[in-house]
Prior knowledge:
- By secondary structure, the protein is an alpha/beta fold.
- It has three domains: 3-112, no CATH class; 128-171 and 342-427, no CATH class; 176-334, no CATH class.
- Helices cover 48% and strands 10% of the residues.
- The chain contains 17 helices and eight strands.
- The strands form two sheets. Strands 1, 2, 3, 4, 5 and 6 form a six-stranded mixed sheet that branches. A two-stranded antiparallel sheet has the order 7-8.
- Helix 2 links the parallel strand 4 and strand 5 (83-90).
- Helix 4 crosses helix 16 and helix 8 (216-226) packs antiparallel against helix 10 (275-288).
- Pfam families: DUF2851 (PF11013).
- It comes from Costertonia aggregata.
- This is DUF2851 family protein.
- InterPro entries: DUF2851 (IPR021272).
Amino acid sequence: MKEDLLHFIWKYKKLPLENLVTSKNEPVLISRVGSHNHGSGPDFFNAKLRIGNQLWAGNVEIHLKSSDWYAHHHEIDANYDNVILHVVWEDDAIVYRKDKTVIPTLELKNHISQRLLEAYKDLFDKKTIQFINCEKDIAQTDALIFLNWLDRLYFERLEQKSFLINGFLKATQNDWEKTLFLLLFKNFGSKINGDSFLSIAKAIDFSVVRKTCHNLVKLESLFLGQAGLLSNEDIVDMYYIDLKREYGYLKHKFGLSNEGIVQPEFFKLRPSNFPTIRLSQLAAIYNEQQQLFNKLMNTNTLVEVYDIFDVSASMYWENHYTFGKQSRKRDKKLSKKFIDLLVINTIIPLKFCYAKHLGKDIHEEIIGIVTQLKGEENSVIENFEKLDIKFASAKDSQAILQLFNEYCTKNKCLQCAVGNNLLNRKV
């Protein structure tokens, strides 16, 4: 038995409404269950109930046991002063408000049908589960409910990504350009080098980028030098030597430090993702695009974004992936697939946060952009596809990742529209 089942029972009135009584045998008539609260405070706001001969308006709190009221210290929390009913599975203690008045208690364990309990238990039957709890039934979810839930999940994911961006803003004293710089570096590093690239960006005062951005060699030497990739004394390569000399000058002039920097990895990476290539591409972006944040915030189409990121690593890297080792000549241009990932993980989340900062609603604009992007490919998406779930765009794949990470893996099925819909149909 979990508390989320009690929330489900109360929210959807899955109990015999005409025979409810409190622990003191007072009749309970539910006019309005209230609004489900997923944040702090009582579980349901603004309920309307008749208890005995008295009509009450206020909040409802739900626990497995009455004594949980004290375990959670609600008796000293003013947020719970307006609780008019305590709904519990088992009533094992008299509960008092902060002002010492008794809160009416509704015990559920003798009111819930065995059919509901068995359907709930079946949802969590680990013996038959290979991927997610509802894998046998998810494809049968009402289509409209599922699509609306995906929309909500996508923006929930954007809200979650906002936490990182807001942290960067706080650290940079609301410098949006530097915040973009940090976010770009992290996402250029991808999964393996994301933390390393972020440590590099944090160690560079953005004023130095502004002062060197007009010279590509200076900018590339700054990024590669701070990454610790210009410290090999055995490399006898003229371009390497030039970059190393330039970095030495910049390090002395601007008092640069490598303290706290995590050196990037090459192992397990495709050559096109080597840190040398990615850092050179970042240098090219900041060399070609001054006021990058403003330009990206003013883009309304993917074509404009593709144009901004139409850059290549510097000429040296056309026939190199690492210093001193020649390779077959190839333009190291940012691929459309990589730019799409930047749109998903950098540009849209930043647009979302900036619009909120300005008090603007750009939900339709964001949907218009993200629905043009192809969904990501990974093991989670593949497993959902095996369950006959279709993906129209990156919006859907991002929403599914949110569903899997925040609901499926945490067994929060009854906080999920899919789980709610499936259980409702069974009872």
